[in-house]
């Protein structure tokens, strides 16, 4: 709630370049930490402790906006990058394991509720952003001093950290034995025996073909979110109106996350949801390149509403479906590695937008986003029909017959986790 509005404020403050650079630092460190440490530390600390400790870095960053000191803003940004990597890896694992438990306890088919539960989580997440934006809109409308506004938001963030103590502990799945990696561009099999608790062993997922084919979509998600939070806010000059419009963005995102999360579990394919999300974004990009070229008429609020609505639909569909797809592929074997790796490419894309915001025109950004969105759709189609179903996680080999040979084993092959009061590995 507090961080979302604080991030949004950075490119609209009196120190917009410093703010954009500070957010860029967050996502660069975020990316680097996911590459090296977040999955490993989440295993070592446990999910709940990771969430509690890492959330403190959010409080520090928000508090750094009470009084502007560049060194404090940059320091808090660096620490938040570390904390965010741990926080979002632990969050992805917690929701995935909770879904596993829910399906097993209630006798449901595996992965039959992943879209809905991820949609509910993201819906609540964006609803809190909506409340934060409404509060910020009111506070700016009331002409309060900036230090008072961010003191209030810091207090709210502190309460959020305290509430994490109430989370029920969730035990991490454990992989044992050998990890086999098949590298398609080499004509031989390459087998590596790695300690499953080492940092390097966490990165082997980056060579898994199903994950590799998701990289364009993950990268696009990061770039598009960077564009939404870095390029769109400066187009709306009045701060009170800005946060009010982004409150509407949060409402649309929350509703779409829940509705399409539910639909993707039973009625429509995840691939179709991805395509709809890409189409929604592309329409807005095309309008910004042709009909609504910046700077925009500040009196036509309907333009801003249409822009944020279209971007919200695409953002919610890509985010919820990527979370669900990774949970389907890796939810029973290595969820921490999967969500940490997702954040590597997502945060790298977001960092790129923030760092280059002052140097690359919005038109070039839009052309780049359209190109990557198209590539993401193409790779998703190939993944779904040629490699692994986005809905069930089954490979073509599994669909054709039950026999499994060493040559078609994937990095995510592993033993299913039976989550109950006494967690065991079967």
UniProtKB/TrEMBL annotation:
InterPro entries, alphabetically? Answer: Ion_channel_UNC-93 (IPR010291), MFS_trans_sf (IPR036259), UNC-93_regulatory (IPR051951)
Spell out the SUPFAM superfamilies in the cross-references. Answer: MFS general substrate transporter
Q: Where are the transmembrane segments?
A: 20-37, 49-66, 72-95, 116-141, 147-167, 205-223, 243-261, 273-292, 304-330, 342-360, 366-385
Localization, per the record, is:
Membrane
Q: Which UniProt keywords apply?
A: Membrane, Transmembrane, Transmembrane helix
Entry GO terms, CC: membrane
UniProt superkingdom:
Eukaryota
- UniProt key word Membrane: yes
Q: What is this protein called in UniProt? A: Uncharacterized protein
Q: What is the lineage of its organism?
A: Eukaryota, Metazoa, Spiralia, Gnathifera, Rotifera
